[in-house]
Amino acid sequence: MFGFTDYAEYRRNERELDQRNERARMAREQKDAARRQAAARRTAEREKAPLRTR
Question: How far is CA 39 from each of CA 5, 15, 25, rounded to the nearest angstrom?
Answer without folding.
Answer: 51, 36, 21
